[in-house]
Amino acid sequence: MPHRVEDFLESDAFFVAVLHCAREMLAIYRESPRIASIFAAQQRWLMAHAGFALHFGYPGEPKLGLYSGRFIAFVVANKIASRNTAAAFIQEMLAYRFLRPVESASDKRTRLLEPTETAQEHFFRWLATHLFILDSLDGGNRLDRINADPSAFRKMQPLISKAIIDSDAVRDPGATYNLFNWANSGGLIMDYLMSRIDTFDRRSDRVDIGPLSLKDIRDQFMISNTHLKRLLTQASEMGSVGWTQPPYKGDTWLSQGFVMEYWGYQAAKFVVVDAAAEAVLGPAARKTASLR
After folding, report:
1. Which domain of life does this protein belong to (predicted)?
2. How far apart are CA 171 and CA 43, in angstroms?
3. Taking the CB of the first residue and of the last residue of the chain, which one, N or C, has fewer CB atoms within 10 A?
4. pLDDT tens profile 38-50
5. How far apart are CA 257 and CA 241, in angstroms?
6. Segment (H or E) for 6
7. For helices 83-95 and 42-56, angle between their N-to-C axes, nearest 10 degrees
8. What does the domain layout of the chain look like in residue ranges?
9. pLDDT tens, residue by residue, 23-78
10. End-to-end Cα separation, the chain, in angstroms
11. Per-residue DSSP letters for 135-194?
């Protein structure tokens, strides 16, 4: 039986692993900022998942295949983005060569699209990072199994996509999380803030993460000074982020509530990945029912 959200919320080892995941996402961004920008805000992340799943075969859908009209209708129906935003996303993915058109022998009127090798490699890396963390927590061999069976990724990704799109816990984990994750580059900035945590005591009101350089954040994540300060100011007004010498001076701290929102989101997401892995690879891919 897959792990439960409660298992992850009660496990300090899981939160340590989550911080590793945040650092890995940042490493992906530094290697390839353009493709990692897909993961930089929740709306883009959900659209990317939707596109892959439609290509591989979205659960419950009568047919598989990704094309612009179908993608736009799907995104709008699932309240991910507007028609214009969805259409612009498709054009951006084509321009960056993360999508490409394919010939369709059956229907010349529809221009089918498919993810390129670059897009698939990076999406696989996202999944591999999550499987590696799950394996490290319960001694499983999910990552070895999916590496040995290339078809497993194509089977697992649509299950993950549907579960994420249908999950309130993943899509709406809390006010501060949403503030960051719906802003341009906000998801990456939130990962960066969390990645600076050394230890976290959930009984404490807040956790110190040391001094921050706004210039380093701006340069690293290509965000304007105005946008960054607006984001941090809003988080500060919510009591989620603060400084020992405001504004933006001295050591920075994150509130216990903000960290727990992030933890809760990660727990819900990892439960989704774990359930998809078990559905495709079988329960034998997880060595123990409990976390280490």
Report:
1. Bacteria
2. 9
3. N
4. 777 889 999 999 9
5. 10
6. helix 5-9
7. 70
8. 175-260
9. 888 888 888 777 777 777 889 999 999 999 999 999 988 788 999 999 999 999 99
10. 16
11. HHHH---HHHHHHH-THHHHHHHHHHHHHHHT-HHHH---HHHHHHHTSTTHHHHHHHHH
